[in-house]
Write a structure and sequence with these properties.
Strands 1-2-3-4-5 form a 5-stranded antiparallel sheet, with helices on one face. It is of the alpha+beta class. The chain is globular. It is built from 3 helices and 5 strands, in the order βββββααα. The longest helix has 10 residues, at 64-73. It has helices spanning 64-73, 78-85, 90-95, and strands spanning 2-6, 11-18, 23-28, 33-38, 47-49.
């Protein structure tokens, strides 16, 4: 799932998916990405785990917890992986529709 949230100071793209218990995902800004977890179906209500790495993410420098979530999320969110690698820009991701 994908959601774009804009406020006065920042824009975030949320990518998240259900797990056996709760939800897991990533919140991405123009410069950083963070792991999000929790029980709410609303990704904005999920707990942000950080600090997150800068984008593009250098695989050798990403925290192990971030790498594990990234690996879990990659099959269902190819756009997220492309964004984290720097293959597409944040604006490209904002402009693309949510995956069906």
């Amino acid at each position: 799932m994908k959601l774009i949230r804009r406020d006065k100071s920042e824009t975030y793209i949320y990518y998240w998916q259900p797990r056996k218990r709760g939800f897991i995902g990533m919140r991405v800004s123009r410069t950083h990405a963070w792991v999000i977890v929790g029980n709410s179906k609303d990704p904005i209500q999920l707990v942000v785990i950080g600090p997150g790495p800068t984008i593009p993410v250098i695989e050798e420098r990403q925290p192990s917890e971030f790498a594990a979530v990234r690996l879990e999320m990659a099959p269902g969110h190819p756009e997220l992986e492309r964004l984290l690698k720097g293959d597409i820009t944040f604006d490209d991701a904002l402009a693309s529709p949510p995956a069906q």
